[in-house]
Amino acid sequence: MTEERLQETGLQSAARPHDHLVNRDMILAKAKELADILGNSGEVQIFRRAEEKIRNHQRIQQLIAAMKKKQKEIVAFESLKNQKMIAQIEAELQELQEELDGIPIVTEFQQSQVEINELLQMVITAIRDTVAEKVNVEEGKSTSVSSCSD
């Protein structure tokens, strides 16, 4: 990258002392900026609203508490090797899960999680592809590095 291009992008020349520290700080600042953008996205806003509704929904909280209790019971009966009780508790746990899944806000929350994960995956892919394009990551070398066999 030329000095002029480095200045345009806000990056400093690799020849300058402590450049790695400046670039690291810049990268972290850009990451924070990206996190702020993502945190204010529609997907995250929907997620937060759904999360708040779930936190304040009495029946959902009861179901979650009951499911946690059942999971602990399964662990206890596994240590006792009591397959009959494990099967019975797993069936009860499945019923609780089905009731939980039948509550619309739970479905909305789960969908919002999927959308946030897709958004994050898109960001990760974009960063990976951009870095790979600039640095030739797949080939394991930088565009400005010469071959050792020269």
Number of strands: 0
Coarse shape: elongated
Uncertain parts: 1-6, 11-15
Ends: how far apart? Answer: 22 Å
User: What's the number of helices?
Assistant: 6
Largest sheet: none
Strand content: under 5%
Mean pLDDT: 84
Protein model, in words:
- There is one protein chain.
- With about 150 residues, the chain is an all-alpha fold.
- About 75% of the residues lie in helices and about 0% in strands.
- It is built from six helices and no strands.
- It has helices at about 5-10, 20-40, 40-55, 60-80, 85-100, 105-135.
- Helix 3 runs antiparallel to helix 6 (about 105-135).
- The longest helix is centred in the C-terminal third of the chain and has 32 residues, at about 105-135.
- The radius of gyration is 25 Å and the shape is elongated.
- The model is unreliable at about 1-5 and about 10-15 (pLDDT under 50).
